C-alpha cells in the first residue's frame, strides 16, 4: 500500500513538473504570436523569413528582442543612433525604421534599399573600436547619440562601453545583446559550457559584473530571444 502511494506521489510530481515545463516553453510562442508578430513591420518579416534556413539563424536578433529595442527608440524620439556589430541586419533595419534621422550601422543593404531608408544609414564596414575612436576625435560627437545597440561579445565589450558612454547623451540608452550568452552564464564553470561558446563565457560574466558595479548606469537585464 505504501509503495502504491509513493508511486502515485512520484507520478503526480512528474506530471506537475511536465506541465510547468510545457507551459514555460509555450510562453515565448504565445508572446510572439499574440503581441510581436502582429506588430512586426512587413519588411522585417521578409528579412526574418530570408534568413530562416541560415545555419546560424539563431544568432539573429529575435523579433521579441526587436520589439524590446523599438520601445526606447520611440520613448527617446531617437534621432541619432549607433550600432556596433551586425549579423543579418534585423536590428539596424528596425532602428532605421524607428529613428527619425539616421542610424550608423553595418548591414546587409538589400532590405534597407527595399524599405527606401538607405539615406538614414551610414554604413561602416570596419573593426568597431577604430570607428568609435574616430568619432570621438570630433568633440561634436560626444553626447550626441540618443541610443546605441551592441550586438557583439567577448573581451571588447568593456572597451565598447567606455567609448559609448562618451558618445551617448545623459538619459540615453545603451543596449547590449548576448549578455546571457545563450543562458550559459547560469552554468557552474567552463567545463559545463559548450566548446563553441566557452571562449566568450568568462568575458560575458566579467562584463555583467562590471555593469552591476558601475554607478553611472542603471541596468535592467531581460532574456528576450535568449535561446541560441
From TrEMBL:
* Name of the protein this chain belongs to: Caffeoyl-CoA O-methyltransferase
| MF-aspect GO terms | O-methyltransferase activity; S-adenosylmethionine-dependent methyltransferase activity
Quote the SUPFAM superfamilies the UniProt record gives.
Answer: S-adenosyl-L-methionine-dependent methyltransferases
What is the species listed in this Swiss-Prot or TrEMBL entry?
A: Eucalyptus grandis (Flooded gum)
**InterPro entries from the UniProt entry:** Cation-dep_OMT, SAM-dependent_MTases_sf, SAM_O-MeTrfase
Q: Which terms does the UniProt entry file under GO BP?
A: methylation
User: Which key words tag this protein in UniProt?
Assistant: Methyltransferase, S-adenosyl-L-methionine, Transferase
Q: Which cofactors? A: a divalent metal cation
Q: What is the lineage of its organism?
A: Eukaryota, Viridiplantae, Streptophyta, Embryophyta, Tracheophyta
Give the family per the record.
Belongs to the class I-like SAM-binding methyltransferase superfamily. Cation-dependent O-methyltransferase family.
Alphabetized Pfam families for the sequence: Methyltransf_3
**Gene3D superfamilies per UniProt:** Vaccinia Virus protein VP39
Amino acid at each position: 500500500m505504501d509503495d502504491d502511494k509513493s508511486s502515485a506521489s512520484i507520478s503526480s510530481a512528474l506530471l506537475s513538473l511536465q506541465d510547468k515545463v510545457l507551459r514555460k516553453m509555450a510562453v515565448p510562442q504565445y508572446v510572439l504570436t499574440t503581441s510581436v508578430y502582429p506588430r512586426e513591420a512587413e519588411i522585417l518579416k521578409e528579412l526574418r523569413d530570408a534568413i530562416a534556413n541560415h545555419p546560424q539563424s539563431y544568432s539573429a536578433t529575435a523579433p521579441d528582442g526587436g520589439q524590446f529595442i523599438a520601445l526606447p527608440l520611440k520613448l527617446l524620439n531617437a534621432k541619432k543612433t549607433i550600432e556596433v556589430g551586425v549579423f543579418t541586419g534585423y536590428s539596424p533595419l528596425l532602428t532605421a525604421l524607428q529613428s527619425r534621422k539616421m542610424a550608423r550601422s553595418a548591414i546587409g543593404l538589400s532590405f534597407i534599399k527595399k524599405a527606401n531608408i538607405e539615406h538614414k544609414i551610414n554604413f561602416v564596414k570596419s573593426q568597431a573600436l577604430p570607428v568609435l575612436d574616430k568619432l570621438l576625435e570630433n568633440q561634436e560627437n560626444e553626447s550626441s547619440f540618443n541610443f546605441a545597440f551592441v550586438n557583439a561579445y567577448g573581451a571588447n565589450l568593456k572597451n565598447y562601453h567606455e567609448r559609448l558612454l562618451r558618445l551617448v547623451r545623459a538619459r540615453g540608452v545603451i543596449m547590449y545583446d548576448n549578455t546571457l550568452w545563450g543562458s550559459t552564464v547560469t552554468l557552474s564553470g567552463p567545463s559545463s559550457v559548450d566548446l563553441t561558446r566557452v571562449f566568450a563565457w568568462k568575458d560575458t560574466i566579467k562584463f555583467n559584473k562590471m555593469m552591476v558595479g558601475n554607478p553611472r548606469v542603471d541596468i535592467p537585464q531581460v532574456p528576450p530571444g535568449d535561446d541560441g
